[in-house]
Amino acid sequence: MKIFLAPRSNETSYKNFLSTIESGVDYSIIEPYLEDQGKKLLGDGGKTFAWGNKETKKSSWDKMEDGDLILFYKGREGDEREGKLVYAGRLLYKQHSRDLGVSLWPPKTGEEPWTCIFFLKDLKPVYIPITELADLAGYSRNFIVQGFMPVSDEGVQAILSKFGSVDGFVNHYIAGEDNTLAPSDLEEKNEIAAHAEAEMLLLKIGRMLGYDTYSPNKSNEAYGEKLQNYISLNELPTRFIGGDITKLVSQIDVIWFKDEVPKCAFEVEHSTKISSGLQRLCQLKPLSTKLFIIASSKDYYLYEKYINADPYYKYKEDFRFREYKQLENFFKAVSEFSAINDTFLK
């Protein structure tokens, strides 16, 4: 999996962007110039979404493979402090063709046509401040996208490490109706409310996915309900958990079990409490439990600080940091799947 950055800032690329990304292209316009594979993938008769590059960028274009992520960059406007990435899509098909490029974007007199064409699927509006990508990829905070380019391998790995998947990364930055980042409901709550609501989401997800659920916080309430309503295990199963670690493990916010084996464990933490959460979760490492810290996006730097210090740095590959927004998106996706699944199997 690779990630590519595509600028759409100058006058020509902006007009092209409006015509073939935001508006889409009728299949009938491109059909005469497509190779057989292109007709097979794009020939449903509907709109297609296309972008391209000139020959000078063919070396980067050649590296693109099916399913790679493309992010479109828009420069700073008005009072904005920085540029941002505004659309995300996956590579569906690419074709090197002067005639296809001219059919999509007729060049001005004396201008070279775009010949390195690619088509996109799963196109979504996003809002990613360019400094956030730069920080993840290890680029300078003054970084701007000046031409079509791949994100470094180190940058891709950093994104996957933080967000779990490319889809998790994109979904975290889905734009709202005003084309800005859709806010996280949990981010806007006070610590007590956010903690309880995050636990409730984790318990509900666990039940929908078929796990037995445990939490010591049975009397807590969120969304007008008690957490107890979604806790299937009143006591911590000790078949595989015993000895000195039982007390610490019993304080973990939420644990998902299968046949009394702890499969996933979650600590919803704030600021300096992340260290305490790591300590409790670490007790389950010998059982190959997936260990998660759920927190505000603002606390990721603290997680990085603690996970790279003794004693946790030795086990950092066993831990995962997930932001509130990722949890909310996961809950929404699981809920939608559960509803469709119940309807289909009824």
TrEMBL record:
<dbReference type="InterPro" id="IPR015947">
    <property type="entry name" value="PUA-like_sf"/>
</dbReference>
<protein>
    <recommendedName>
        <fullName>Restriction endonuclease</fullName>
    </recommendedName>
</protein>
